Amino acid sequence: MSSPLNPFVSDLLASYEHVGGLNNRDAHNMPSTRAVGQICEDLLQLLFPGFHDDDAVHHGSLAELTNERLNRVTERLADQVRKSVRIGNPKKPTGKTPPIMQKFCKALPEVRELLRTDIEAAFDGDPAALCREEIILSYPFIEAISIQRVAHRLHMFGAPIIPRMMTEWAHSRTGIDIHPGAIIGSHFFIDNGSGLVIGESCRIGNSVKLYHGVTLGARSFVRDEEGHIIKGGKRHPDVEDNVTIYPNSTILGGKTVIGKGSTIGANVFLMHSVPPNSLVVYEEKQLTILDKGTKPKKAQL
Of 62, 145, 164, 236, which is least packed with CB atoms within 10 Å of its CB? Predict the structure, then answer.
């Protein structure tokens, strides 16, 4: 059928032939960003029954509802994991998906227990929090850390790509970017959280509190003889127990350790370790505060 768009269709088809890496023409499905996003929505319902539902969840129906939801989530998640492990050789079964999914299901109660400690940390650490229900329903960091804690388990169990897709879904909704590879202890709290970044190889202890704009990033990238970045390795800092890092601070480097009990003030830039119980602050060279009602005197000529 003739159409004024036919020349543009021909140009696109030619692009598919000549520009590699942007299209999948191997007659098999890739993991779906839309499907992974829906799975994340359903996981939040599974982790917090009654908090992400339009209708009330009654105790008498909870067992049946949980069975239904877990089966639905695992079936669709297994399909996405299966596609991810077959990338590069789509026609060859790997046998990796069933054990990944079995470990995933077993880990969900552990994830819920960690999330309970995160909610407690938020309630204890934020004077604006009136109740725990408010935290679950309205704090973006709960959504971000819930998805990251689930995605981290999938990452540890060997599922490729899907964990990163999950945390990027949460990132797009909350502004909080936590790589699924990051190891995060209990009682974790992010206050506000907008613009926060936690890199892949970060190790964060228990009872750590971070504010918006904090970056736990890489200092530099090791390259091979041809100049290509070497993947993996310890590139991001460690934060030990009971550390607080205030807004817009940047801490870089795989060898950087923030010692237990330390406080990092706002707008600090660090590329080296600090010992336990340190207070690190950025001191302004000059700060002037004037009374706006008092006009400055003119200089006498």
Answer: 62
Architecture of the domain spanning 182-301 = 3 Solenoid (2.160)
The DSSP bridge partners found for residue 152 are none
Whether 163 and 154 have beta carbons less than 8 Å apart is answered as yes
Query: What is the residue-averaged pLDDT of the chain?
Result: 89
Nearest to 239 by CA among 265, 212, 257: 257
C-beta atoms surrounding 227 within 10 Å: 6
The three-class DSSP label of residue 70 is helix
CA-derived radius of gyration, the chain? 24
Long-range contacts made by residues 61-70, C-beta under 8 angstroms, separation at least 24?
A: 69/42, 69/45, 70/46, 70/105, 70/108
Q: Is 140 exposed, middle or buried (0-12, 13-18, 19+ CB in 10 A)?
A: middle
Q: Domain 28-175 belongs to what architecture?
A: Orthogonal Bundle (1.10)
Q: Which two tokens stand for residue 73?
A: 């989530």
To 5 degrees, how large is the angle CA 8–CA 10–CA 12? Answer: 70
Q: By mean pLDDT, which of 46-50, 250-254, 290-294 is the weakest? A: 290-294
Q: Provide, rounded to the nearest whole percent, the portion of the chain with pLDDT above 90.
A: 66
Cβ atoms of 192 and 149 closer than 8 Å:
no
Domain residue extents for the chain: 28-175, 182-301
Alpha-helix residue ranges (DSSP H) falling in the chain:
6-18, 33-47, 62-85, 97-125, 132-138, 140-156, 162-174
CB 275 within 8 A of CB 259: yes
d(CA 232, CA 100): 22
Q: pTM here?
A: 0.86
Long-range CB pairs of 14-19 (<8 Å, 24+ gap) are: none
